[in-house]
Amino acid sequence: MSPIVSITNLSKTYGSGFRALKNVSLDIQPGEILALLGPNGAGKTTLISIICGIVNASGGSVTVDGYDIRRDYRQTRSRIGLVPQELSLGAFEKVWHTLCFSRGLFGKPPNPAYIEQVLKDLTLWDKRNNMLMMLSGGMKRRVLIGKALAHEPMVLFLDEPTAGVDVELRQEMWALVRRLRASGVTIILTTHYIEEAEAIADRVGVINQGELLLVDDKDALMHKLGKRQLVIELETPLTTLPGELAAWKLELSEGGDKLAYTYDPHKAHTGIHELLQALADNGLVIKDVQTTQTSLEEIFVKLVKGKDEKR
Ligand SMILES: Nc1ncnc2c1ncn2[C@@H]1O[C@H](COP(=O)(O)OP(=O)(O)OP(=O)(O)O)[C@@H](O)[C@H]1O
């Protein structure tokens, strides 16, 4: 399948001389949800802004559905919907009119049935005649999504869709993103929230200081870099580990009451069965057991930190 967005060696140096993007290359496949994860100032918005034609690249190229963003700007822009970070909506405009107007800007003929569907999908239908200033923050955010969808784009960019949004609304937004994907829209979102990437992305790209450190399938990333730990709580704390347990490379907690065994859950043989047997053979009585999985957050922090330390 050809990528819907293809980014090749993209660079951006702002007028101040600051290099916000350094040779970024990335292919985005139709129908996927890609999360671009990175700390403040990593270059995420710059990347999106270049693809949407708001910022000019200093080098490299981008195609959308096979069209070049510079040469075929109108073709590419009409295929893209952008939901910006900031709420930038007129106060007195009505919801329905906002979406219809936005559609018109792209030269698309009116399609009330489509706009109705978008508003229903965004659960804004009963607010269609409300002025924007009468809406809650969460509703305004959904109007921004509706505006971005009004011209039927193939690719939707969401810049920090849930920044400053409460937990309930965040879950609602995630469900909405999934529904949009199911309707065939490719979604690229930027986020600081690792749990957001973990919850909805098919692939995760990590950006730091203008560089794309990696892009990988979310599950593969967790699989490759994630580790699982079995934490065993003992009835009686230990001062030292019995030599017979050396093979498991256990970590003994400070108080001596917990043993941590790190293993690969994807291996046919994890060694847990033998470990439990060896504990019993050494007269160690287990009080409790617990398993923990490295989160995407830990993986992300390790990646970004590792890169910073090399500088
Ligand atoms: N117009 C500009 N002129 C100069 N530097 C800029 C300009 N716009 C952005 N930058 C710088 O480029 C870097 C990347 O900014 P960008 O907004 O792309 O980051 P981001 O990853 O989206 O950050 P955040 O998560 O905080 O939104 C930052 O250091 C920023 O200060």
Q: Given this structure, which CATH class of the largest domain is correct?
A: Alpha Beta
Small molecules bound in the structure, each named once: adenosine-5'-triphosphate
Number of strands: 14
SSE order: EEEHEEHEHHHEHEHEEHEEEHEH
- Give me the number of helical elements: 10
**Which range best describes the helical content: under 10%, 10-25%, 25-40%, 40-55%, 55-70% or over 70%?**
25-40%
Q: Any guess at the CATH architecture of the largest domain? A: 3-Layer(aba) Sandwich
Shape, please? elongated
- Tell me the radius of gyration: 25 Å
Major sheet summary line = 6 strands, mixed
Query: What is the terminal-to-terminal distance?
Result: 38 Å
CATH fold naming of the largest domain: Rossmann fold
Keywords: ATP-binding, Nucleotide-binding, Transport
Organism: Thiohalophilus thiocyanatoxydans
Protein name: ABC-2 type transport system ATP-binding protein
InterPro entries: AAA+_ATPase, ABC_transporter-like_ATP-bd, ABC_transporter-like_CS, ABC_transporter_ATP-binding, P-loop_NTPase
